Amino acid sequence: MIGQFAFISHSSYDRAFVERLARQLRSDDVWVDMWDMDVGDLLVTKIERAIETASEFILVLSGAALQSKWVKYESNMAIIRLLEDADFRIVVLRIDDCEVPLRFRPFLYVDAPNDPESAISQTQAFLSKRRSSEQGREILYRRQFVNRAEEVGLIEQYIGDPDVRIICINGFFGIGKTSLMKEAAIRLWRRPQLAIVELSPAHTGPRLCLELCALAGIDGPPDGASSEELTRASLLAVESLVADARVIVFNKFEGVLDEDGSPG
Prior knowledge:
Blueprint lengths: L5 E4 L5 H11 L4 E2 L1 H4 L6 H11 L2 E6 L1 H4 L2 H16 L4 E6 L13 E4 L4 H19 L14 H11 L17 H12 L4 E6 L7 H11 L10 H17 L2 E6 L13
Parallel strand pairs: 1-2, 1-3, 3-4, 4-5, 6-7
């Protein structure tokens, strides 16, 4: 469920300013780690969930923030969220004389270096205006995809190559691999139907076969089926999905690879 609160990303060195900002914005509802994290919370999971359900991501930008690994991680998550949801907003709030990196310049809504009162009032005004503009209307979630045309083009090229049977997209967690795949499918097929399998180390033999059969809507092999029967049933399921114009996607393929990089 999408909430109506702002996630504040910041360096711990800017904690005093963020506490003031958060108190001023409390009526607008904010998520700040110093308030909303309980002992025992799984940090990464709680942060990802908060960004996923926030309506705004406020980046308190400073020299210290640019050196923070946590701020980098959180801002990467926010950019991915923005690619998928055009109603989500990233709000960069510069509070010192740091240089604004290129990736953050489109989101520089508040530029008040060394003027905390102005920074807070400008941020509060922005959120108040955004909240009031949303009253009485249904928020529309639209596709938005920027600066990935070259990568999407490569995927399209490989899909159209008759000599290519499998396309693997790899990279660090959180860089938008799934978004790339979905965008390529949307551009290539008018109404793509995705058959997505979330792989894990347990997806070997019967489990993978049964999941493919379930996606294809066909009966799976009986209990105790041989490896040859499992293979035939899996191939039949894949053929059925392809015949039904389904795009088959295997997520987290690394989960079924052994130490040599071969499927286990």
